[in-house]
């Protein structure tokens, strides 16, 4: 008999009250084929001892976890979508299935779904997820986690045996249900909905709930300043997310306010891409005609969404304090971007902060002028000047001998290699880094679609695991 699960279930979201969610039933699927199981994170929440049958029962048929929600909760929220306010959205093809505690640090974590069937917020949709969409989300989250971006974790993917028809995929296509593990599913759009309907009392309860369960370090704040402290924490988290996107070369594609949560954790991956080269205008979504969510505009887009959150709790925070917090977003962003670059390069902060700023400036200038590979550059110079011999053997070594690299070389020389740079890790004996460009994603999917061959996905996940080990623990920035 397998050992008993070690998880600790919570039902804290239910305490917010019925106005925040709708209890729903999961769809019944004709088939359940387990395609992906995140055993590493299952261990963090105590579900690693589940048998495959038990895993499918809870994460495919959504039988309640003992001590958890008796029925899943479809969460209510609004949001700005491409800057247009939409009061008719909510969890339309997903729900909050369970809340658990991280065994290592005690954080509250959510198990939310994607593709689990229709809810009151599905509108004209079928509430389902294509298998390709599930595979793409696994690849996005695994890669982002390895690159130091705060992201949801793809926890489970089960193929469900239904033909789905979609306008952006050859149809019929295969179906799946995904379960993601996140720190929070409370979004900026959750606050927007309450402001839209004028429920100030519920907004106050929501702030109190968020402080208690996601920012407990603020519990000692006086009641009159707690909302401002909460907004300031969210601003710092959102700035960190923006900075980490930029340092990873990642484009989310759909940074609507319903896709931004209060813990600053990236989630809900649709038309995402990694930029092959530094190009601020690079977009991920084919329907983003104006480039609103292009690579270079992501920090501004996230700041815009942060302002929408501030509007909803303006009465609690006060105008002067709100302006002060929003005005500090850019400073948070610059600081976090410099720390993110130091993490990526495996360098310690310089004694003079201006040298950290010079590293950021010269890097962007070099990447912009030479259009060298974004990821190869970070890979080659991991450890700074301690890796100059390795960089000299790079496929793009000629770019490092060019005049455009002179400023970058000087900036790297001003920084010491961090103790945690892990330069002796086998990953850094590769000639090229692990990447996740669109061509690679499509190739992985083609092998699944054409031959039901999952080996390329397995191999890519193994490569990413090696990269994650090489880059952890983060040497700076935390």
Automatic annotation (TrEMBL):
- Which UniProt keyword terms apply here? ATP-binding, Magnesium, Manganese, Metal-binding, Nucleotide-binding, Nucleotidyltransferase, Transferase
Residues binding ATP are 90, 92-93, 114, 126-127, 180, 187, 268
The residues that the entry says bind Mg(2+) are 259, 268
EC number in record:
2.7.7.-, 2.7.7.108
| Tagged with keyword rRNA processing | no
Q: Which reaction does it catalyse?
A: L-seryl-[protein] + ATP = 3-O-(5'-adenylyl)-L-seryl-[protein] + diphosphate; L-histidyl-[protein] + UTP = N(tele)-(5'-uridylyl)-L-histidyl-[protein] + diphosphate; L-tyrosyl-[protein] + UTP = O-(5'-uridylyl)-L-tyrosyl-[protein] + diphosphate; L-seryl-[protein] + UTP = O-(5'-uridylyl)-L-seryl-[protein] + diphosphate
Q: State a single Gene Ontology molecular function.
A: manganese ion binding
Q: What class of enzyme is it?
A: transferase
Q: Which cofactor does it need?
A: Mg(2+); Mn(2+)
Can the keyword Nucleotide-binding be found in this entry's annotation? Answer: yes
Please give the superkingdom of this protein's source.
Bacteria
Catalytic center residues: 258 (proton acceptor)
InterPro entries linked to this entry = SelO
HAMAP family xrefs? SelO (MF_00692)
- Record-stated family: Belongs to the SELO family.
Any idea what job this protein has? Answer: Nucleotidyltransferase involved in the post-translational modification of proteins. It can catalyze the addition of adenosine monophosphate (AMP) or uridine monophosphate (UMP) to a protein, resulting in modifications known as AMPylation and UMPylation.
Protein name as annotated:
Protein nucleotidyltransferase YdiU
Which species does this protein come from? Methylosinus sporium
């Amino acid at each position: 008999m397998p050992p008993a699960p070690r998880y600790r279930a919570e039902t804290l979201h239910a305490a917010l009250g019925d106005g925040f969610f709708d209890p729903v039933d999961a769809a019944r699927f004709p088939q359940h084929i387990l395609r992906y199981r995140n055993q590493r994170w299952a261990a963090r929440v105590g579900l690693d001892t589940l048998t495959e049958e038990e895993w499918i029962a809870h994460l495919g048929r959504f039988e309640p976890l003992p001590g958890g929600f008796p029925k899943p909760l479809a969460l209510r929220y609004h949001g700005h979508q491409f800057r247009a306010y939409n009061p008719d959205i909510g969890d339309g093809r997903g729900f909050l299935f369970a809340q658990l505690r991280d065994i290592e640090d005690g954080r509250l974590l959510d198990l939310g779904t994607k593709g689990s069937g229709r809810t009151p917020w599905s509108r004209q949709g079928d509430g389902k997820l294509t298998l390709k969409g599930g595979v793409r989300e696994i690849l996005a989250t695994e890669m982002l986690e390895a690159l130091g971006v705060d992201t949801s974790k793809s926890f489970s993917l089960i193929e469900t045996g239904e033909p789905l028809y979609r306008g952006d995929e050859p149809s019929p296509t295969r179906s799946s249900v995904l379960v993601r593990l996140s720190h929070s599913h409370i979004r900026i759009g959750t606050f927007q909905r309450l402001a839209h309907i004028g429920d100030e009392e519920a907004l106050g309860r929501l702030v109190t709930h968020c402080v208690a369960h996601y920012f407990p370090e603020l519990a000692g704040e006086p009641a009159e300043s707690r909302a401002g402290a909460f907004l300031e924490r969210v601003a710092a988290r959102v700035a960190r997310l923006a900075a980490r996107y930029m340092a990873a070369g990642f484009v989310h594609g759909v940074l609507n306010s319903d896709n931004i949560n209060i813990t600053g954790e990236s989630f809900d991956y649709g038309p995402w891409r990694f930029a092959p080269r530094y190009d601020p205008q690079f977009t991920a979504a084919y329907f983003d005609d104006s480039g609103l969510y292009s690579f270079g505009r992501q920090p501004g887009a996230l700041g815009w969404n942060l302002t929408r959150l501030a509007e909803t709790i303006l009465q609690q925070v006060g105008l002067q304090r709100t302006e002060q917090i929003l005005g500090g977003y850019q400073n948070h962003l610059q600081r976090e971007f410099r720390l993110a670059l130091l993490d990526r390069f495996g360098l310690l902060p310089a004694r003079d902060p201006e040298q950290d700023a010079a590293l950021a400036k010269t890097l962007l200038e070099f990447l912009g002028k030479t259009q060298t590979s974004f990821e190869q550059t970070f890979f080659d110079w991991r450890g700074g000047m301690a890796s100059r011999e390795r960089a000299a053997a790079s496929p793009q070594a000629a770019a490092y001998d060019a005049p455009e690299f002179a400023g970058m070389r000087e900036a790297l020389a001003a920084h010491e290699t961090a103790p945690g740079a892990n330069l002796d890790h086998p990953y850094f004996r590769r000639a090229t880094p692990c990447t996740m460009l669109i061509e690679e994603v499509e190739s992985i999917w083609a092998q699944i679609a054409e031959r039901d061959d999952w080996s390329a996905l397995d191999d890519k996940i193994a490569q990413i695991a090696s990269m994650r080990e090489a880059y952890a623990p983060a040497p700076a920035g935390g």
